């Protein structure tokens, strides 16, 4: 039976590119056939896994320019059963796609908020007076672009080919080493069918909430990892959405959760946190843009 991989659509998004890379990797390395299922949002892609409509989802979690993708973090916290099987790191190169004859004719630029932010300096330099309009994905507005000669979309060169649209400028992201980390997520705690064959995992992701208004409450969890010499590669706070000033903390650690020191850290961490959620231990795979 084919596996279904949910991702942010419509076709041509960077999430689809990452999902397609993973689909090919699964078939080549595991002999598993899969098909891609686009969804209108990141949250719906993850909900499809929880509801059993897809076995996997490939979702962006962090960009090297703009940082964390908050919708992914919030969804991981809210959807209790999801587990990370693998991370994919893919280079991102943005293009300005438009049917306009020149940059001078462009009045509006559409794209996902992350893409707009990743090209902010370029836009300020070459299109300082245009209106920037955020959309659900980098490809959603491409479907109506041909009719509007004053509009442009920031998306990928591959998307321009798929929709048969001209490119006015390439490589417009502000930093050439722009890359995004995607997560491969399923409902299974550990399923070796979806993972890199390895005795250990290189990273562990988790999140926790703290008792409200307790001085120094964040210091204690961080000291646990420091004292056990476990490297913390990322920490991100998100509001609990319960009360102003209350936060959740998302952590990425460079260790396998099955290691004795990580087991010790997790046991101690549970005594200092209000709610502790474990998202999985996994490896990181470099992905090629298509």
Which key phrases capture this entry?
single chain; 10-stranded mixed beta sheet; 290 residues; 5-stranded mixed beta sheet; alpha/beta
Helix content: 25-40%
Unreliable segments (pLDDT under 50, ≥5 consecutive)? none
Measured by DSSP, the beta-strand proportion falls in: 25-35%
What is the overall shape?
A: globular
Instruction: Give me the count of strands.
Output: 15
Distance linking N and C termini: 26 Å
How would you explain this protein's 3D organization?
It catalyses: prephenate + H(+) = 3-phenylpyruvate + CO2 + H2O. The strands form 2 sheets. Strands 1, 2, 3, 4, 5, 11, 12, 13, 14 and 15 form a 10-stranded mixed β-sheet that branches. Strands 8-7-9-6-10 form a 5-stranded mixed β-sheet. The longest helix is centred in the N-terminal third of the chain and has 17 residues, at 14-30. The protein has helices at 14-30, 42-50, 70-78, 113-118, 120-126, 157-162, 219-227, 260-272; strands spanning 3-8, 34-39, 56-63, 67-68, 83-91, 95-98, 108-111, 131-134, 151-155, 167-170, 179-186, 203-209, 232-239, 247-253, 275-286. The chain has 290 residues and is of the alpha/beta class. It contains 8 helices and 15 strands. The chain starts with a strand and ends with a strand. β13 (232-239) and β14 (247-253) form a beta hairpin.
């Amino acid at each position: 039976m084919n596996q279904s991989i949910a991702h942010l659509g419509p076709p041509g998004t960077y999430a689809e590119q990452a999902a397609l890379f993973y689909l090919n990797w699964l078939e080549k390395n595991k002999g598993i056939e899969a098909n891609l299922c686009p969804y209108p949002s990141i949250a719906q892609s993850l909900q499809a896994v929880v509801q059993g409509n897809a076995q996997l989802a490939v979702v962006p979690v962090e960009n090297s320019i703009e940082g964390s993708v908050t919708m992914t973090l919030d969804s991981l916290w809210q959807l209790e059963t999801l587990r990370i099987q693998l991370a994919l790191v893919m280079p991102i190169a943005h293009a300005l796609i438009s049917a306009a004859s020149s940059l001078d004719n462009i009045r509006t630029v559409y794209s996902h908020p992350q893409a707009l932010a990743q090209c902010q300096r370029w836009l300020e330099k070459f299109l300082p007076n245009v209106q920037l309009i955020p959309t659900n994905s980098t490809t959603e507005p491409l479907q109506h672009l041909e009719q509007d000669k004053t509009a442009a979309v920031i998306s990928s060169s591959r998307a321009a080919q798929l929709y048969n649209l001209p490119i006015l400028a390439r490589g417009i992201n502000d930093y050439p080493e722009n890359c995004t980390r995607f997560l491969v997520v399923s409902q299974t705690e550990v399923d070796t069918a979806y993972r890199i064959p390895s005795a250990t995992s290189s990273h562990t992701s988790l999140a926790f909430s703290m008792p409200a208004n307790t001085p120094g409450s964040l210091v204690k969890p961080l000291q646990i990892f420091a004292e056990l010499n476990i490297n913390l590669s990322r920490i991100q706070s998100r509001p609990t959405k319960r009360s102003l000033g209350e936060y959740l903390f998302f952590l990425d650690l460079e260790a396998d959760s099955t290691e004795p020191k990580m087991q010790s850290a997790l046991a101690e961490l549970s005594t200092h946190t209000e709610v502790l959620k474990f998202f999985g231990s996994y490896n990181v795979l470099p992905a090629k843009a298509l």
